[in-house]
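Our preliminary data section would be incomplete without showing what the modeling component actually yields. Below, a chain of 487 amino acids is followed by its predicted structure, encoded as tokens that our downstream tools consume directly.
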Amino acid sequence: MRLAHWAVNAPLRPLLLAVFTASFVLPAQAADLITITRDALDNNAELASARSEYLGVEAGRDVARGGLLPQINASGTVAHNEQYESQGSSRAGTGAGTGNVSAGDDRYNTVALTLEATQALYDEVTRRQVTKAERQIDQQVYLLAATEQQLLIDVASAYFDILRAYEVLEARFAQERAIGRQLEQAGEQFEVGLIAITEVEEARATFDQSRADRIAAESNLQVAFEALEQLTGQRYASIEALGDSMPIALPEPSNRDYWVEQAIERNPQVLAQQAGIEVSRSGVEIARAGRLPTLSAFGNYQYGDSDIDNTTGNDSSSQVGIRANLPVYTGGSTSASIRQGTYQLESSQYDFESQRRSSIQQVRSLYTQVSNDVETVEAREQAIVSNQSALEATRAGYEVGTRNIVDVLNAEQNLYNAIANYAEARYDYVVNLLSLRQQAGRLDVDAIEEVNAWLTGDEVNFTLPESGGNDRYESALNIGAPPQPGT
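Predicted structure:
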């Protein structure tokens, strides 16, 4: 199904067909990579959190800007008042030594209302806080882009990890089935005295190892299922397989320096750290602005009324003016804030340089890996042909008595390992190529669609194959009863 493009000899083709051809009923339509990617963009919790964080940072700019716009405040009170007085007085010539209590009201109600409007005329601290908020938005844009690109590579990696695990599991099942038959045949030959018990035990040990390999492959496949579900919040019945005609070529353009330049100019993590320098610089500017005066215009209106002494009418007043404030001494907090902001600025500069170096190193490494993957895929493909030839030669040696059953088992294992390694190499190439695009800041939905075009429409079902009694996993070698040694 996946290896029909191999230019291999005729004896190998039945092997590949037996190992990789699916023959069970699958759902009507499998999900492809672009469909799953869009599901992840819509449903991924981490990306949704990043989007909400961006909106929150964006709202912070409006919060800071509000300090430069008109402010209107109103306050009022309604109160019941009671006075308690005891004052004595004596008047000469009256002959009376008793005191007189004031005749005024000792219980009365008051109403007061104040309305004030202010407008900042000069407030450098608030203005620079607005600037910092805008720079934080710029940084958050890059962080959101980095989160989206990370999700794209995570989805693609999880998708191809499933296909990788599935193909490896197919090979391991075929290997276990073939060696199991070899063990059974060895036992029959031992019973009739054709081989020694040591060869049976060697076959049993090889079978046990192949079974362990198959169990590990099953576990890897199940883990891959869960990884994809965690990213999208959905479980898919089947996905499309990677086509045999997938191009295996160097990245375009095939110039490592070009990809390094792209990483410096477009990598969202690098750009976010660069924007972080400007955010920290704004923090220093805000701290320094704390030494500057502020100037604002204000106007207020005050209204008051009370029923004391049964009076009628009310008192009101208004005021318009300009208010200035100059911080003379703040206990050293302004100077400390400037030092703190300066250290944070230095830290952000070092963070930027660290991220820049890291991105350059990763791009260089990934470019080298992709270049090596191109040669590795070709070498792994040739290894299958070589191992097939080695197996045939080993079987021929067994027929004439120069090789034993252990040699045949080892050759058979080597062939299935070569098949599994070829699958690993193909998926390593795809994932490393997408990772290179990510580090260069060139991974987007369009890039995923390009890779999606490499899928064939063949479906890979997520149901694990049965471990026994399935013709689909019959030995590709189609070995019958081994010939007797020396015959």
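The beta strands are 71-82, 107-122, 238-242, 294-306, 315-325, 455-461. The first strand starts at residue 71 and ends at 82. Preliminary results of this kind motivate Aim 1 of the renewal.
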